[in-house]
Amino acid sequence: MKKETISRRLALMGMAALSGVTAIGFASAPAVAEDVVVKVYTAIEEEQMPPYKEAFEAANPGIKIEWQRDSTGVITARLLAEKDNRQADMIWGLAASSLMVLDNEGMLDGYKPEGYDQIKDDFKDRRTDTPTWIGMDAWASAICFNTAEAEKLGLPKPTSWKDLLNPIYAGHIVMPNPGSSGTGFLSVAAWLQMFGEKGGWEYMDALHANMNSYTHSGSKPCKAVGAGEYPLGISFSYPGVKLINDGAPLEVILPSEGLGWEMEATAIMKGTDKLDAAKKIADFAASAEANKLYNGYYQVLARKDVEATLPENYPANEQDLMLSPNNFEWAAKNREAILTEWQKRYGSKDQPKS
């Protein structure tokens, strides 16, 4: 009988557990919390997404990132299109000039992340005590030059932006469309600042005559040049350096007039119902740990207390040539007008969108 009684008690306890109550007192069992899923819009390169996600989720159990990625122009346009029906909770890795456009539309929530005081002044919104965006890192324009293909075609090595206007380069240059690519837009914005508005458009008219086509990715011109598809591409340093270190016959050239540059930045979308989780992402994105991750891809970092290391073959004088001052507010205010004019003048050479 004793054995039968114990078995019967165990059976009753099992039934109670299945019905969500305890065997004693029939009180409600505590619910198991599910992961909070935060939809994060980004324009970072695809290879950056897994390490950023893994590091954040390891440090913040219970919060999961769901990425929505595309090129800078596409993500910016999507966010603007969703203004009245917002799908994103958080932005982690989009050009600061794009975030300024969103801010002007009242779409961003102000938040000062942990470690704010360690962020360099040029990498944060300093208009109020509750900044709407925080910088992560910076990248700058560069020319990728395939030495093997150039030798076959008898092309000289350029050292400046103006060198690219030499008729010998006709049909041999690719660059990103600024409407699709942040790298394309920072290059166009830099030329308009360096050469003046009239001189900038004159420069791009002449450059267009030598242009083979315009891509819809900032890294694609350099990758295509590394593969031998074209001898010259306007892009940024990191993909070129990676290709050089992988054995490609490539040089990364920093034009002597100076470099256009842009910041990647983070922001919280106003109205998100995942605000606490989004703030956790903002805190992590501004942390020293995150900046060390950014250094795997970029060499100009937002944090004062994280010293950037340069990979082998990375041009050491990049930061010295970055356009200073770079008027991001002007670029954001005039972005739509610049892109409309650019597309009207040069869109005939766009590559098909994949």
Q: Which tags fit this structure?
A:
354 residues, D-Maltodextrin-Binding Protein, domain 2, globular
Overview of this structure, please?
With 354 residues, the protein is α/β, with parallel strands linked by helices. It folds into three domains: 1-32; 36-138 and 262-311, D-Maltodextrin-Binding Protein, domain 2; 140-260 and 330-349, Periplasmic binding protein-like II (D-Maltodextrin-Binding Protein, domain 2, 3-Layer(aba) Sandwich). 39% of the residues lie in helices and 18% in strands. Strands 1, 2, 3, 4, 5, 6, 7, 8, 9, 10 and 11 form an eleven-stranded mixed beta sheet that branches. Strand 1, helix 2 and strand 2 (63-69) form a beta-alpha-beta unit. Helix 6 crosses helix 7. The chain is globular and about 60 Å long.
Number of domains: 3
CATH architecture of the largest domain: 3-Layer(aba) Sandwich
Q: What count of helical segments does DSSP give?
A: 13
| Rg, Cα atoms, Å | 25 Å
The name of the CATH superfamily of the largest domain reads Periplasmic binding protein-like II
Distance between the termini: 75 Å
Q: What spatial form do the alpha-carbon principal axes imply?
A: globular
CATH T-level topology of the largest domain: D-Maltodextrin-Binding Protein, domain 2
* Biggest sheet character: 11 strands, mixed
Give the overall pLDDT as a whole number. Answer: 91
Secondary structure tally: strands: 11
| CATH class identity of the largest domain | Alpha Beta
Share of residues in helices:
25-40%
| Amount of beta strand | 15-25%
Would you identify the regions where 5 or more consecutive residues have pLDDT less than 50? 1-32
Order of helices and strands: HEHEHEHEEHEHHEHEHEEHHEHH
Content-based structural category: alpha/beta
